[in-house]
Amino acid sequence: MRIGLFTDSYWPEINGVATSVLTMFHQLTALGHEVHVFAPGTKATPREKNVHIIASTPLIFLKDRRSMMLDPMLIRRVNRYRFDIIHTHSEYLVGMLGRLAAKMQHCTCLHTYHTAWEDYTYYVTHGVADAQARKLAGKVSAVWCNHCDQIIAPTAKIEDKLRAYGVRTPIDVIPTGLDIARFAPSLHTVAQRQACRKDCGVPDGSRVILYIGRIAKEKNLEVVLKAMPEVFQAKPNAVLVLIGEGPWIDKLKKLAATLGIADRVLFPGPRPWTDIDQFYAMGDVFVNASTSETQGLTYIEAMASGLCIVAQDDPCLTGVIEHGKNGLLFTEPAGIAPALLTALTSDGHALGQAAEHTAQQYSQETFARRILELYQRTLFRMTGTRNLRRYRY
């Protein structure tokens, strides 16, 4: 098949959408299909065959994200290719471009709903009429999804949310897959671990409580910091390391100073995604208090790295983290510190080993096969054939 992937976020950006599209591109290509990616980028974005970089500018509200620049010739560029499947991965400009191309080419259109936009309205409203904005985000999401032939939700949580919005289009739940093998603890040496710790400013002999991801309001990192004085009192050699970038760093640094723990909360900034497995390996425990995740790929990466996860209980983790079996879940902020202290014991180490085993079911190969099977089923449902290409060329 000839497949078009349209996304407003792509490598080298580091987030769940970019990772999902990158994985899909390489895995479907390896299975013998002709896959094209259309994404915003800059002159510095690495060039790769069949990856079509669209000129872009930083987003007004999220400076670390990019928006494609409008080009009247762009649709002509896209329509050089007659696609069997167009798969959009955002509800923004490049996603709209994909929808337009699908309409013009009369081809099957699938969409993965990666982002629960109601959790991000703050960046536009700053708290003013936010309830109305969240409701509007749901309505817009429903309109978008109801104009597609098939929806992919990364978790049952998102499927339920879309149905509540009023989405009538068929939905399949397919978790994004990862290159699980690269995170295996056995592949990372003590020397690598120490080098990453030194790179992040971690003192020798420390126990590392690790967070990797976007540092933003929706990640609820304030509640993690507020639990740390209790943890640090019980574990004098523990430090909290927050790897990533985002608009909430300065606020969290101020909070750490107010709590008197600034010297034990480290903000080393982002690290290259190509090396991120080594930075997971330097941790002893992984913590996340977010309830805004659609899937949360960092959970899977941390599990594959053999780390005990301490996480806010959330529907996106149903079937992924089982409390007391392969990780620890808390429901209230008061539960964070006790869970972290347990995770830093031998019991936590055993939970991390169980988590590594659980992560194997989220391989990129399984992901690609499930996506391809859905493509074929959707083509058959929409057109009566599983592969249109032989009829078009």
Secondary structure topology:
Elements: E1 2-6, H1 16-30, E2 34-41, E3 51-58, E4 66-68, H2 74-78, E5 85-88, H3 93-105, E6 108-112, H4 122-125, H5 130-146, E7 150-153, H6 156-165, E8 171-173, H7 190-199, E9 207-212, H8 221-234, E10 238-243, H9 249-259, E11 265-269, H10 276-281, E12 285-288, H11 297-304, E13 308-312, E14 328-330, H12 336-343, H13 346-359, H14 364-383, H15 389-392
Parallel strand pairs: 1-2, 1-5, 2-3, 5-6, 6-7, 7-8, 9-10, 9-12, 10-11, 12-13, 13-14
Antiparallel strand pairs: 3-4
Write up what this structure looks like.
With 393 residues, this protein is of the alpha/beta class. Helices cover 40% and strands 18% of the residues. The chain contains 15 helices and 14 strands. The strands form 2 sheets. Strands 4-3-2-1-5-6-7-8 form an 8-stranded mixed sheet, with helices on both faces. Strands 11-10-9-12-13-14 form a 6-stranded parallel sheet, sandwiched between helices. A hairpin with a 7-residue loop joins strand 3 (51-58) and strand 4 (66-68). It is globular, with a radius of gyration of 21 Å. It starts with a strand and ends with a helix. The model has no long low-confidence stretch (mean pLDDT 91).
